[in-house]
Specification:
The chain is of the alpha/beta class. It is built from 14 helices and 13 strands.
């Protein structure tokens, strides 16, 4: 199977309902009637979802929620954010506390089949890594035998940690904490020599240290961490809306449609651009949205590249290279079905 075919078999994702209204009532209708999208986010992951100095939510996942709100409600500001810990996020979604969970969560079989959730796809291709004290003088994960390692409990990170050390016949001392903040604090205070999380998160955690230069993100990636937004698995219509907002952001980048030129796109005579803007095709109606739903999502947050670079890439303090998160025709695996 080609790389493009493999990636196209994956969807993107997000959402479920705030009220305890059963999904059969229609999450899309519930959101429209309420006039606000309820979005679950992290308690603070640099680049993905965190509050700025003014108390406003910022980040990659936050911008995705705003794009969904704009597509559905016509206003990117009509979204309320609720932070959840790793241990409570999925129960909160299942219980109807939010319509959408965009909380840098890893897509796994157990979370879909076991919990009855649906990942509409991958918005960020990540992998687990290690942040080590520079004083350890190690150059890779295979040099961490007998290390004390801080990890957030109730995560795939904790399970991957055990798998990695068992597979390599190494020993380690686990220091598990209920939140990422507590794990980082323990690392900084010297309770452990190493902190493990997704590579993207480790770059942000390192910058939070009193002396960032005293720690280094090791080059090793020990797992696949396909991150994406999540919805309950019992409302296909809502799942479809979020999935196609996600696809729209990727297609916008590929078509060259951005915040800066979206008004020009509305005048384009190119068939694929006209379908994107809603001038042709009638796809908004099929989704239960207005004809210009895709244009609204781009106006709200930008295309995928703009969202990435602003929060995680060259325009951010993290400066994480796009790598796998580059478009499929630019050396990455980012791929979206066409709007047609």
């Amino acid at each position: 199977m080609s790389k493009a075919s493999w990636v196209s078999s994956l969807a993107f994702s997000a959402l479920a309902s705030l009220s305890a209204v059963p999904a059969s009532a229609g999450t899309l209708d519930t959101v429209k009637q309420r006039g606000t999208l309820q979005c679950g986010v992290s308690e603070g992951v640099a680049g993905f979802s965190e509050k700025d100095a003014q108390g406003n939510w910022r980040g990659f996942d936050v911008d995705f929620c705003r794009a969904v709100a704009a597509a559905v409600l016509g206003d990117a500001g009509k979204v309320a954010f609720t932070p959840f810990s790793a241990s409570e996020r999925f129960e909160a979604l299942k219980g109807g506390k939010v319509d959408l969970l965009a909380r840098n969560s890893t897509w796994t079989l157990e979370r879909e089949a076991g919990l009855g959730l649906a990942f509409a796809g991958i918005t960020f291709h990540d992998g687990q890594g290690f942040l080590a004290k520079r004083a350890l003088n190690v150059d890779g994960a295979l040099s961490l035998d007998k290390a004390k390692i801080c990890v957030e409990s109730g995560t795939t990170t904790q399970a991957n940690l055990a798998d990695f050390f068992k597979a390599n016949s190494m020993a380690y001392e686990e220091k598990a904490f209920p939140s990422a903040a507590e794990a980082l604090a323990a690392f900084q205070s010297g309770q452990c020599d190493v902190l493990t999380r997704d590579q993207s998160a480790l770059h942000g955690e390192r910058l939070k240290l009193a002396k960032p230069a005293d720690a280094v993100v090791l080059p090793d990636v020990i797992s696949k961490e396909p991150l994406g937004p999540v919805v309950r698995g019992d409302d296909f219509a809502w799942f479809n809306v979020v999935k196609w907002v996600n696809f729209a952001l990727v297609n916008a980048e590929e078509l060259g449609i951005s915040v800066g030129n979206v008004e020009e796109a509305l005048k384009s005579q190119k068939p694929d651009v006209r379908r994107f803007t809603g001038a042709e095709g009638g796809f908004g109606k099929a989704l239960g949205l207005e004809a210009d739903w895709a244009v609204r999502s781009v106006k709200a947050s930008g295309n995928y590249a703009e969202i990435y670079e602003r929060n995680l890439g060259t325009g951010s303090k993290l400066a994480i290279p796009r790598g796998l998160n580059q478009l499929w025709n630019m050396g990455g695996v980012l791929y979206a079905p066409p709007l047609r």
